[in-house]
Amino acid sequence: MQIPLTHAASFALAITLATADLSPPQTIEVDVLWPTGSVSTSQFRDIPLIFAVQNAEAAYSYEWFIEHRLYNASVWAAAGNDSAAIAQIERGSWPEDIDWVDSGLPAWSYNGNPPFNYYYNGDVAVAAAEWLTIYPLDPGDYVILWLYSTENCAEEDILMVAWGTHSFTVDEEGVAGLEVMLDACPEYSGGWTIRDTRDDGCPFVLEQGVSDPDPCRARLQNRQQVECLEDYYRLSSDDTSRNETEACRAAFEVATWPVLTDTYDTTGMFDEDGHAIDSGSGSGSGSGSDDEEGGSDEDVGTSYHVDMSVLGLAATMVMWVAWCL
């Protein structure tokens, strides 16, 4: 799918300075580090959801914001793959009338409670969601639907540019810890590619998907990286030092690439050593369906999120302008 972007719906301009060349094409791949396969969630207070984002410098330069919803696999199979649901997703909206289990807090760049801005293996960012769910999951099969959005150049807005689904199984006999991320490749889940840019550097033509995905590049490399993520999910979300542990500082590189948008400034977010400065705290989300208690879009991390209807409106405007042209 190609989306030509106009002035009002184009993306963030990267400041390259002395950094890598970010001229197109630029492909940003999204892989799932955890959960994969058959897992046990009994040891976690808040169940982790960990993405890897490849081509990290480009991803941070354009900024990223990954929201997610968790579905029972049988519910998703019955309702989530029809044309109406897919059309809603591609407009940047959650599919209506499909019961969901939970919607957790998202993963996103340069912000959070606290920020988790680490990368490894040269250009792979760790996109650690605050949690997949805080509720115990019954044994069974589940599907995660995720939406990847990015800042645009001109508007106080974000736009969904990629989405994907990921399946896993909860089984108390399954893998119990995060160390599996050292032994197995992550699972490719989607991505997006910038094919052309305007004269000012803003992406102008993009397409969803990755032509030659390589999720094994995103496999974690050492036990300290696992310990860092275990600390992050073991400690309370109110503990603003939970990603500044000795393991985190030793295991990863800190993402401090500059960003230029009309609406976002990273000044003051990092100390002189390049470590993230606490940005405050926020609230969590409920669970249920869109029609039942705790399940409205407005419930989802209201301290952090942009209303998903904004994404749908932005995507609709882009498609309308493209049609007019």
From TrEMBL:
It holds the Pfam family DUF7136. Residues 268-301 are annotated as: Disordered. Residues 1-20 form the signal peptide. Keywords: Signal. Residues 289-300 have a biased composition (Acidic residues). Residues 25-220 form the DUF7136 domain. This is DUF7136 domain-containing protein. It comes from Aspergillus lucknowensis. The lineage of its organism: Eukaryota, Fungi, Dikarya, Ascomycota, Pezizomycotina.
